[in-house]
Amino acid sequence: MKLALFDCDGTLVDSAALIHETMRRTFDKFGKPEPRFEDTKAIIGLSLDIAIARMQGRPHVEQQDIDMTAHYKSLFSIVRQDLDYKEPLFAGIREMIDAISGRGDLLIGAVTGKSRRGLKVVMETHGFDKHFIVARTADDCPSKPHPAMVTECCDETSMSAADTIVIGDAVYDMQMAKAAGAKAIGVAWGYASVDELIANGADAIAYHPNEILRHFS
To answer: Which domain of life does the UniProt lineage start with (predicted)?
Structure first.
């Protein structure tokens, strides 16, 4: 039996454009310089308050970051509607999830810097809610790379970290997996480079979702 824990943004869905536009409007509201798209992509995966602090060069969250986080959350669904944006699946993701969802030797979960509400929207939009039996979000645990998202999913499913595989596109996913004692698979279609993923502990790199399947055999 294995536990597969998937990151969401940058791994299952391509949400960078939506996140960046919401971040751009938030920074504008607070009179901050408009962030570059590359700056936004670099923080995807972190919990939102920490991400906003990092984008302003601060290692710790201050009150303004908390205020900006609240504004971002209030804008997110509005921006999604403005853009008519559905956070599309990356090519091959649906087929991969369909291939593993019926297996009796594999449990599927999500570990994400999204809010629980945001994850729910993605899961329901793409019909994945029936396949993912466990999840931890920014509402539940400390931000990645803290291992709590992984260890709590392991505890809930009675699985060991040694039998758990974390699949993600960010260096924070790789660091989180290693901190928890789990295997880390980096995906090449997301927002970090392959070299960055390897440098931060990736045990393997998948260049297409169907390559993930071999790690569950």
So the answer is: Bacteria
CATH of range 2-14+88-215; options 3.30.70.20, 3.40.50.1000, 3.40.50.720, 3.90.550.10: 3.40.50.1000
User: Of 88, 184, 97, nearest to 133 (Cα)?
Assistant: 97
List, in order, residues 6 or more apart from 189 with CB less than 8 Å away. Answer: 90, 91, 169, 207, 208
Cβ contacts of 48 within 8 Å, gap of 6 or more: 69, 72, 73, 113, 115, 138
CA angle (111, 189, 102) in 5-degree steps: 55
First vs last Cα of the chain: how many Å apart?
A: 10
Question: Model-level pTM?
Answer: 0.93
Residue corresponding to tokens 């260890």? 151
What is the DSSP code (8-state) at residue 75?
A: H
Going by C-alpha positions, the residue among 31, 25, 79, 26 that lies closest to residue 49 is 26
Assign 208 to helix, strand or coil.
coil
Give domain limits for the chain: 2-14+88-215, 15-83
